Each structure stands twice: as structure tokens, then as C-alpha cells.
Fold this protein.
Amino acid sequence: MTHKAGYVNIIGEPNTGKSTLLNALLGEQLVIVNPKAQTTRHRILGILNGDDHQIVLSDTPGILDPQYPMQERMMDAVEEALIDADVLIVMVELGQRPERSEHLLKRAHRFKGPTVVLVNKVDTGDEAAVLQALEAWQQEFPHAKVVPLSALHGLNVAELRGYLVEQLPEHPAYFPKDELSDRNMRFFVSEIIREKVLTIYEQEIPYSTQVVVNSYEEAPDIVRIQADVIVMRESQKGIIIGKGGNALRRLGTYARIAISKYIDRKVFLDLKVKVDPDWRDNEAKLKKYGY
């Protein structure tokens, strides 16, 4: 029996549903999802296995015009995804127009392999709007397969999964068949904590925050985790902690509950807040934090 395997890489602007699609295709809540832009900062692989195939799905940061070095590293992750893709998924949302998607199109048109354009969130519009969007994106990508989709509600997700398998080249599996991602548990725990920062805090705070998991210790009855929430200024540290420590306790509670659900274990979470001045603008610091 022949075996197929390949990289299916997802690109798109912020908040078009790339991470939601990855989770839907995997049938697992692997990557964090939040309505705020720039939730995804890293390229994250999710591995979908079958007896005769392996789809290596790649979630990437939303395409934008970078304003500081951290965003430049995020766009480097998108460039990397264009290089090693066997199949490229271009994710757009209903209402998004090609003529206003310059940064996305500049990258997507450089890819010469099999391309799928997904018009996501079709559940938010009527039939006329969906047909108009499909026609516009088909004109922009005449050689691509253009598909209406609702990643959140599962519309056309199973059909898409089957189509992607058909497009894969014959190749042995890239990863062991029991693996779900190339990232370790510490990474996903840090992402869960960061998602709660996105949920709880406003304005610039979520975009100035990095989370580092320093220890992850499994005991028979509990998992003990110590993590640092890194911010750029002392004033931001005060906001994260809040009056009398209330905001930090709230963050810790929300994160602990979410981590416990994710790993299906009882969790003790120790959070500390530290200042690392202007970390997102410093190349050496970005490298230290995995960018």
C-alpha cells in the first residue's frame, strides 16, 4: 500500500480563522483561538494521521505589515511556510476583497504548487454574498480550488480533509504516527496562559506580553507548573498584577482551569510577573523567547 505525506500550510490575514481550521481538521483543540488579532505568533504544526497518509498542517501568524522586530519574526514564519508547502491553503473570510488584501496576495501568488482558497465564515452571510465572494476569489486565483467554509461550524471541513489527502505526494510519514504536533507540552501551556492574557487584559498589554514556562513537574496526583509572565515596562507589570493582586489571581485561576482541561489532570500553577525591557524589539531577546 502506498503512503502519502506532505505539508499543508495555512496562510491568511489576522482573524480569518486559520487556527480554528487547524483545530477543526485535527478534531482537537490544539492551538489557541481568540478574537483579538495576532493571537498566533509562531508557526505551529498539527499532525493528522491516517493508515495511508499523514497531513502535516501548519498554522502561521496572520499576515500584516510588521511594525517592530517581533512582527518581523512572525512574518519570517509565513515565508518559511511558503517554502516547504506541498499544498497551500489561502484563508480569507466572507466580506474580504482581493483588492484590499495586498500583503496576502503578494505572498500567495509566489507559491506555484497546489493551492486551495478557503472563503471562511460563510455562515455569517447570505447566498448572494457567498457566491459573489467565491467568484471574486476564483478570478484572483484561476488555477486554485475555491471552497466555501465555516471552520467554526464544520461546514465542508470533512470534504476538505479528503481533498487534501488526494493532493499529497507519495512519501513516508515525516513524524511518528502517534504525534499530534512538533511542539512540546510546555509550549502549549505557555500558549494557554497567553490566551488568557489576551482575554482578560486590554489595549497594548496582550501584545507586550510573553509567557515562559520554567518548570512542568508531573506527580501521581497533580501537575505542578511554574511560569513567568514577561512584560516590557514596570507600569505593565502593575496592570497584570492589579490592585491587591486581584488581576493576577484571576489570570492564574482562568489559566489553571484551562490547562487542567487541556491535559485532563489536576494542576497547581504558580505565576510570577517579570519585566524584560523592550523584549519584542530586541533581536537577542526574541531569539531567547523562541522567535
Observations:
- The first helix runs from residue 18 to 26.
- The chain has two domains: 4-167, 185-288.
- Strands lie at 4-12, 44-50, 53-59, 87-93, 115-120, 145-148, 210-218, 223-231, 267-275.
